[in-house]
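quick one, two chains, predict together pls
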Amino acid sequence: MTTVHIPFLQTGTLAVGGRLLDDAERSVQSHADRPASLTKGHRACQGCAEALAARWVMDTAVEASDGKLVVANATGCLEVFSTLYPESAWKPPWIHSLFANAAAVATGIAASLHAQGRDDVRVLAQGGDGGTVDIGLAAVSGMFERNDDVLYVCYDNQGYMNTGVQRSSATPASARTATTPAVGRTPGQAFGQGKSMVKIAMAHEIPYVASATVADLRDLEHKVRTAMSIRGARYLHVLVPCPVGWGSSSSQSIALSRAAVQSGIFPVVEARAGELTDVQRIRERADVEEYLRPQARFAHLFKPGGEDALERWRALAEANIRRYDLLGERS
Amino acid sequence: MTSHDAPPTLGLSTGPATSLAYHTGTWRTERPVYVELAPPCSLACPSGEDIRGWLGSTQEGEAGFEAAWRRLVAANPFPAIMGRICYHPCQTSCNRTDVDEEVGINAVERFLGDTALERGWALPAPAASSGRTVLVVGSGPAGLSAAYHLRQLGHAVVVREAAAEPGGMMRYGIPAYRLPRDVLAAEIRRIEDTGVTIECSTPVTSLDEAQAEFDAVVLTVGAGVAHHVDIPAGAASKIVDAIDVLRDVASGHAPLLGRRVAVYGGGNTAMDAARTARRLGAQEAVVVYRRTREQMPAHPTELEDAVGEGVRVQWLSTISQVEGPTITIEKMELDEDGRPHGTGEFEELDADTVMLAVGQDADLTLLEGVGDVTVADGVVQVDPTTLMTGRDGVFAAGDVSPGSRTATYAIGRGARAAKAVDAWLASRVLPAEPVQREATAERLQPWYYSDAPKQHRAELEAARRVTGFEEVLSGLDAEHAVFEARRCMSCGSCFECDNCFGMCPDDAIKKLGPGMRYEIDYDYCKGCGICAEECPCGAIDMIPEVR
């Protein structure tokens, strides 16, 4: 990727910081005085990667906009756990209206700021996969199509988690949720359903589309900074493991993100104007089992009868590796 | 940036309260705690060096070199020597082996040692005088280490050495191509500069007299006497002891060995003897060893170096007879227990000289007639904690006492003896060495360490090596030494990578600034365990929360 390459200093680019690094080379998160846009005391579950990703994204956006940032937030975990009346865990100006309309609200804010000649104030919209891929898709698509000056960030935990883990159209195939139980001939979410929001965004040919995970902080910060340097509609899709919905240990949220990338399950990409421009290569190839086995929602894959589904997962990873050249075989 | 804990200043006109009011720490069932564990390198170091510590200082580059050296010599006053001759068990145990290759600790040690000599860094000044006197008998690595540490503790120390020059086996056993004599001399002189008196050509002949003169005595006379085996030999045969040859070469009296030399034995002395024979002009040097490569006591790198210089090894063979320039060799075979037995099959080999390298014994003449010092298995028996012999106030360390016969072990035992003498002089009980918890490879998160292979020290071309006694391995330059030091994964000790701080979803870790590490804010920490899981060096434990 085009992220800053850190010279070898005991750890490399993948650690958050390092005592031997020059200040200028440090990540935003490694600074003792980082903005901490999402502060302590929020009610996210233990090990919530969405809370982590939201702080990473917003801290970088706050820095990139010199503190002049307005945030519109869709309904979802992120809104519920951060703003229990009368408290707020957000430091930047932040607004919540409805589940479906975060993109539309952000569009309005951006239009209003532009009308006032305040183009120096930047607008960020964010939501989960429910508010983005399902319920809010029309508003998001409209925002893309009009090329409104908004960075839209989707934190994808692959389901409706705070309401009791129901499926969304971002729930992966074979995953067990409250509404896709692991019973019958095709247990869990059926194969062939769901949609790729990254590809949908790319199809709008907006200036910037990227995917990222909490397994690579510098990559994520780089993408937010790049997005903030561009005007028009931009989309960032971040995979955020959910210990409660995925049935994983709270300590594994980063490890699972890593396994998702290293197995080829979650391609980390960058695209401009609909063209794929960069792909994060696999560093240490992992089998899909490394990603699936620690998650209780996939437990049935490892019982008799689960072999077919497991093979389909492998095929999915292989297809991604081929499609995005994740092993760097073509370049 | 806004202040870390400041409440939101912008937002709804009603002015929302901040979530800081809600302490999520009450959810916790496990709490993360920072721990400091012992790394495998230090646990494996017989000299007891804080390897992780001095590598850590070296990582800072020029600004950290002297601090690194000072941390090193706190345990071992011979970094330039040991950076050359140590078998570095630290590297064998290094956790980095699982990532790519072990850290080249020994090469960095040598770099620090050489840098200190170049820049004339002095050892630390000793503590205020205790008014007590200690005699150290023998100036090998154990003796000089004991003397150095005793002097550091404020005692007046005299080292008496029977040979003409100090150093023991470092001078008379290890060839100059492995340890240049100016390096040896400089590191010994630096110990003398702290106030240690070394009296050479002064053998100690009476323990009673020594004890009358000094408050305590440390025996470190080594094991410099060649062990002998009976081999039927004709009058014209030339059979010499390898250790004597090495000693003669070291003293500047290189013997004539002839064109073909056989070395009998399989230890490091045998390797040194064979390599020395090549340097003295022998075209053929054959090591005759009665077992197999796997069983050979010589360090594998010593064997590799010898073979690289054209030394041949005749495995599973014993010398049964020497007659003039011809030796008779009997083929051996191993039984089920791995013990060699003769096969009755013989062959002949031409050899102008046979060098015996079948072990060394301690010189115990000083202890003849001393009833209260127990000698068993050829060595002086000591209390394993205090290293005191059966006689009050007489201690023993190094090759003369039980244990591994390596310089690094001798240095470690010398230091231990110094502590024991110090405690005994003050009538204190010396506590046993504490058992430390190890930072095992399983605790580490190797994902965060970049691939960075070891910087190999350039080896002199084998052809050039055998022509003389110049040093075989060259040192690292500063840039490479720093790089190598940075390959250290700091197993079990926080090195401030910021992972815990950056990866806490609850913003519940405070960064305290350079060198100060972090603090967990237990008011907000939910105990998810991400910090412990993603800590590269395994310096965070999750322990059950007790309320």
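Chain B has four domains: 19-36+494-544, 47-121+445-486, 133-224+362-425, 231-240+253-355.
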